[in-house]
Each structure stands twice: as structure tokens, then as C-alpha cells.
Amino acid sequence: EVQLLESGGGLVQPGGSLRLSCAASGFTFSSYAMSWVRQAPGKGLEWVSGISGGGASTYYADSVKGRFTISRDNSKNTLYLQMNSLRAEDTAVYSCAKDRAVLPNNFDFWGQGTLVTVSS
Amino acid sequence: EIVLTQSPATLSLSPGERATLSCRASQSVSSYLAWYQQMPGQAPRLLIYDASNRATGIPARFSGSGSETDFTLTISSLEPEDFAVYYCQQRSSRPLTFGGGTKVEIK
Q1: Which of A92, A86, A90 is nearest to A40 (CA)?
Q2: d(CA B66, CA B75)
Q3: How far is CA B60 from CA A47, B47, B104, in A?
Q4: Which of B91, B92, B93 to mutate to test the interface with A (most CBs of A within 10 A)?
Q5: C-beta atoms surrounding A24 within 10 Å
């Protein structure tokens, strides 16, 4: 059974940093791309960033480029999102999602998410 | 970036009725469009990928069609558990993008 468990969310001041983690199990982690998708309270889905199965290729939404860094440790079956220079508009539930393929495409399994609140 | 526009924003229907949801892309995405269902408080579920392919375990009452810029998700006969929010998503180019969603509510 595929399981994705996010952690690391919380309250942070504007301009601050946070590192999210996603522990994966139930599938061959290195064979699939992974992404972070966020959902602001009462809003729709926004793809944030994706990384290829091997970790060599990374992709970002324009809204986070230069501030967020996605990475993965295939030996630990864990996905990360380093978030710097956080803004109020980054407030959302951040979910990790497993892709159907080795590059970011479509998401066939999702975690329940971790809430990030950016506020002073 | 490719913008996806979903319509209508809200669809009010009764169980047993047919639901037709639309997703329009700002430029061609070929057939690289997916549909997701999100129930309140739950993670999204992949329904359809590459315009018309049902994901594993998805009932046959869900079908997708379309290509290039115009796509449709059809639910042939609404079951009580189908009342939810539906999102389209393109994988033709990065950044990957989602539509704004269509809420299917009980009339």
C-alpha cells in the first residue's frame, strides 16, 4: 500500500524558512517522480515543484522559483521542500504527490498534507 | 504557463443525473490532460489521465474526452459519493497547472 506522510509544517514569520519532509513507502521510490502541491484555505490546487525519480531534474512554479528548493533522498525514501523567504501568500496545506512516471506528469497518490502558515 | 479554465464553477444536479464538466486550455495541450476528484477534507484522487484513460479502480461511469484545448469530464449517472470538487490538470508543459475547479453539488 502506497503511503505518503508529510511533516515539518507550522507557523513561520514572513521572510522565514521552513523545511518540509515526505516519507514514502509501499512503492519503489526512486522509480517515480514526486511533486509538492499546495492548497490555500478554501482555494484550488497549485503545483509547486517536482523532481524526477533519480533527482537530477527539478521543476518549479514561477511563484516559488528562487525561493523554494525540492530534493529527495532515495536511500531514505524521503522527499523534501526547503522553503525560504516565505510570504503570506505561501500559506497553504502542502501535500506531496507520487507521479505515474519518472518525470513530473500526473499524480496517482497523495499525502494528507501539512499546514504552513506564514504570519507575523 | 498554460492556463486551464473550468466551467461551470458550480453544477447543481440530482443523483442519477448526468454531469458534464468542461476544461479549456489557453493553448494546445494535445491529449495531456487529467481529471481529479476532491472530497471535503480529503486528498485529490486521480480519475482520468491523458484525456480519456481511467485510472486504476475508477468506475466506468467516469469518462473523459477531448483534445488540444477543449476537454470534457462526464459522469454518466451521479452517485451520492460523486458530489465533490473536480479539477483538471495539464502535463503538456511545465510548470504543470491545474484548473480552478468545478463543484458538483446536490440540487
Answers
A1: A92
A2: 15
A3: 28, 10, 18
A4: B91
A5: 23
- Confidence (pLDDT) at A66: 97
pLDDT the model gives residue A44: 96
Residue showing cell 481529479: B36
Which residue spans within chain A are E strands per DSSP?
A: 3-7, 10-12, 18-25, 34-39, 45-51, 58-60, 68-73, 78-83, 92-99, 107-110, 114-118
CA distance A83 to A76: 20
Task: Tell me what the pLDDT averaged over chain B comes to.
Answer: 97
Other beta carbons less than 10 A from residue A14's beta carbon: 13
Q: Identify the pLDDT of residue A103.
A: 84
Q: What is the mean pLDDT of residues B56-69?
A: 97
Chain A interface mutation, best of B94, B97, B103, highest count of A Cβ atoms under 10 Å: B94
Residue B66 φ/ψ region, left for φ over 0, alpha for ψ in the -120 to 50 degree band, beta for the rest:
left
The cell numbers describing B52, all together, are: 480519456
Supply B9's cell numbers. Answer: 464553477
pLDDT tens track for B3-31: 999 999 999 999 999 999 999 999 999 99
Q: Which residues of chain A have pLDDT under 50?
A: none
- Evaluate whether A104 touches A50 at the Cβ level (below 8 Å): yes
- What are the chain A neighbours of B87 within 8 Å (beta carbons)? 44-45
Say what the pLDDT of residue B104 is. 97
Please identify which residue in the block is written with the cell numbers 508543459.
Answer: B93
